[in-house]
Write a structure and sequence with these properties.
By secondary structure, this protein is α+β, with helices and mostly antiparallel strands. The protein has 5 helices and 8 strands; from the N terminus they run H-H-H-H-E-E-E-E-E-H-E-E-E. The protein has a 4-stranded mixed β-sheet with strand order 1-8-7-6, with helices on both faces. Strand 6 and strand 7 form a beta hairpin.
Length: 208
C-alpha cells in the first residue's frame, strides 16, 4: 500500500528559498532574512489576516521556526538536505508509478477469507507477503479481504484489507452527498505480489 506525505512543503518552500542543489551557496544572513520575511507574512500579530482557528495559525508559525532552526544549523541542514533529496527521488518514482497504474473499482474485486502471512511476527496488514485459502498455520491470520488476480497469472495477486482502506482515507475530510450521507472517496495504490504492476483501487468509505 502507498500513502505518502512527501507532497508537503519543504523547509526551503516555507522560507521562500531555492532547494538543493540550488541552495548550496546560501549563507546564514540570507536564511535569517528569509525567516523574518516569512514571519511577517504568516504571523497573526504582524499582518492583518482573516480570522482563523488558533491551531492553524500556530502550526504555520511553528513550521517557520522549525524550518529556520534546521536550515540555519549546518549539521541539521546537511542531514535534512540528504533526506530531502532522497524524498524527492521517491516522490518522482511514486508519481510515475501512479500515472501508469490502471484504476480498478473495489467492487470489481472478489472478497472472502484468506490466511495472511506477515514479514515478521506482529506485522501490519499492509506488510502482507503471501496468503492462502488453505488451513491456517501458526504464522498466519485469517482476515476478510478483497483480492484480484493479475495479468502475470498470479491468483490473488492484489489483496486489500479493511485496515488498508481505513488508512488510505484517514487523512481525508468527510464529504456529504445530496441525500445527506457522509462519505470519503478513497484511492489506494497497491502492487502485484509477483510482478511490478500497480493498481489504483478506487472505493468509497462510509461512517461505521
Amino acid at each position: 500500500m502507498i500513502r505518502s506525505d512527501l507532497d508537503s512543503e519543504s523547509f526551503y518552500d516555507v522560507l521562500g528559498l531555492l532547494p538543493p542543489p540550488h541552495a548550496t551557496a546560501l549563507d546564514p544572513a540570507e536564511i535569517r532574512r528569509a525567516y523574518h520575511a516569512a514571519l511577517l507574512i504568516h504571523h497573526p500579530d504582524k499582518q492583518p489576516r482573516p480570522k482563523q482557528p488558533e491551531t492553524a495559525r500556530s502550526a504555520t508559525v511553528d513550521r517557520i521556526i522549525e524550518a529556520y532552526a534546521t536550515l540555519s544549523t549546518p549539521n541539521l541542514r546537511a542531514a535534512y538536505d540528504k533526506q530531502l533529496t532522497g524524498d524527492q527521488h521517491v516522490l518522482k518514482l511514486l508519481h510515475r508509478i501512479s500515472a501508469q497504474a490502471d484504476k480498478i473499482d473495489l467492487e470489481d474485486f472478489q472478497s472472502g477469507e484468506l490466511c495472511l502471512f506477515h514479514r515478521e511476527e506482529g506485522g501490519a496488514d499492509n506488510d502482507i507477503t503471501n496468503f492462502s485459502h488453505h488451513s491456517p498455520s501458526p504464522a498466519c491470520v485469517i482476515k476478510h479481504v478483497w483480492y484480484r488476480s493479475c495479468r502475470c497469472g498470479k491468483n490473488d495477486a492484489y489483496v486489500v484489507t479493511q485496515s488498508m482502506l481505513e488508512q488510505a482515507v484517514d487523512h481525508l475530510e468527510w464529504s456529504i452527498d445530496p441525500s445527506g450521507q457522509l462519505f470519503k472517496d478513497g484511492d489506494l495504490l497497491i502492487q502485484c505480489q509477483r510482478c511490478s504492476t500497480w493498481l489504483h483501487v478506487m472505493f468509497t468509505e462510509f461512517p461505521a
